[in-house]
Amino acid sequence: MNDWVSAKAEEPLMRRRVFLGSSSGLGAIALSSLLGSNAFGAERSPPASRVGGLPDCPHFAPKAKRVIYLFQSGAPSQMDLFDPKPGLANQRGSELPDSIRKGQRLTGMTSRQASFPVAPTKFKFAQHGESGAWVSELLPHTAKMADNIAFIRSMHTEAINHDPAVTFFQTGNQLAGRPSMGAWVNYGLGTESTDLPAFVAMISSGLSDQPLYDRLWGSGFLPSKYQGIKFRSVGDPVLYLSNPDGLDAGTRRRMLDDLKTLNNIKLGQYQDPEIATRIEQYEMAYRMQTSVPELTDLSREPAHIFKLYGPDSKKPGTYAYNCLLARRLAERGVRFIQLFHRGWDQHTSLPKNIASQCRDVDQPSAALLADLKQRGMLDDTLVIWGGEFGRTVYCQGTLTADDYGRDHHPRCFTIWMAGGGIKPGVTWGETDEYSYNIVKDPVHIHDLHATMLHCLGVDHTRLTYKFQGRYYRLTDVHGNVVKGILA
């Protein structure tokens, strides 16, 4: 006992650090708390081919290994694309009945309108495939894939303006600061790739450039190693990927080795998980110097693939190019791939602008499904397409014979899902005759997230993280799996 006291008196700080950092000390206890109850002596280990993830995930056999989320930022009009209301053809210009609007809130852009005239779509709809799904003439390529798709017409949200609505879709909460859905998936399931990030985000633009913030693919209060990596369309796909002039690969490697040694010293002293994240990020960046140029080199893609995705598929930064890159990322084991396409915010001149947007996204979206299917990958890849809310049946601004605009509408809108775990050829949910209210099978954002996680083999109520004394999850305290669309 006296020897121990003497040693403690001589080296109090070192002894305390050893205790905090040892496998049996408080550092281990804290780490166990961060990783969950199965961190030590876990019941089962992650698959050998997987990098990262929680020991107890997936919770059950998954149908999907990965997610490709095609987010249409700005809110596509469901009435002009997927939710036909032929009965409105004879009501053009008539006032939206109070019995339909029910005093529901309006945005500041239409709240002062004296009139809310009904604006039926000017585009034709037809049924497609054996499923008989209704799809607008604006989406002929998507229509050909209708039997592979589940259309959800009864999505609804709580946010009525873009930023909180997009944030809600990405994080499960309207306020900034929560982890994005890709970060949650990365945290729970890890990745099958050692040379590429587990979570990649890409942005393309249509007619307008509403802001999209890095926090939308961020890690929130999760350790930063779970955040998404943004691929750029100009210069290096990832910032600082190339060595500076005069620095060769050998020098870079020696520099990283020395930096890793220094970081490991600090990690041993402070046990800060962000230091471990920094070490991992440097190593990943080094490996990406080889993997990313190979990934983005499309020269070996055959001509019929470029024809499938359309004429823009050779142009970096376009939606078509990003869809093709998403397939290549999926092939290489990336767990969560998110494409953001801006330009759907059509308050005015909707017929002209939505036609342009559809030309951007229709063929590449359908091509991605077809490409995955022909490679045998659609069965274990979940593909999701949709925006943050819908559009109003009434016209914003002046209604003319050929033109109309639509305001934001959170009460009902349409998204589609396809691939791993989803029943193909399904149309789920119904709206009223004005596509204004849901009358059957409503699906909330938390329900969508719960269903997405279910397809990945994750029970959304069990994927949690303790922060500031509370256990958080992507679905907050809500969410039900939409069993009617599951295969």
Short description:
With 487 residues, this protein is an alpha/beta fold. Helix content is 33%, strand content 16%.
Strand content: 15-25%
Helix content: 25-40%
CATH architecture of the largest domain: 3-Layer(aba) Sandwich
CATH class descriptor of the largest domain: Alpha Beta
| N- and C-termini, Cα separation | 66 Å
Shape: globular
Number of strands: 17
What's the total helix number? 14
CATH fold node name of the largest domain: Alkaline Phosphatase, subunit A
The domain count comes to 2
Strand-pairing-aware structural class: alpha/beta
Mean pLDDT: 89
Describe the main β-sheet briefly. 9 strands, mixed
Uncertain stretches of 5 or more adjacent residues: 1-47
Radius of gyration: 25 Å
Chain-wise SSE layout:
Layout: H1 2-10, H2 12-21, H3 26-35, E1 66-73, H4 78-81, H5 98-101, E2 125-128, E3 133-136, H6 140-144, E4 149-156, H7 162-171, H8 181-189, E5 199-205, E6 229-231, H9 249-270, H10 273-296, H11 303-309, H12 319-331, E7 336-342, H13 350-374, E8 381-386, E9 390-395, E10 406-409, E11 413-419, E12 426-428, E13 430-431, E14 438-440, E15 443-444, H14 445-455, E16 465-467, E17 470-472
Parallel strand pairs: 1-7, 1-8, 4-12, 4-15, 5-6, 5-7
Antiparallel strand pairs: 2-3, 4-11, 8-11, 9-10, 13-14, 16-17
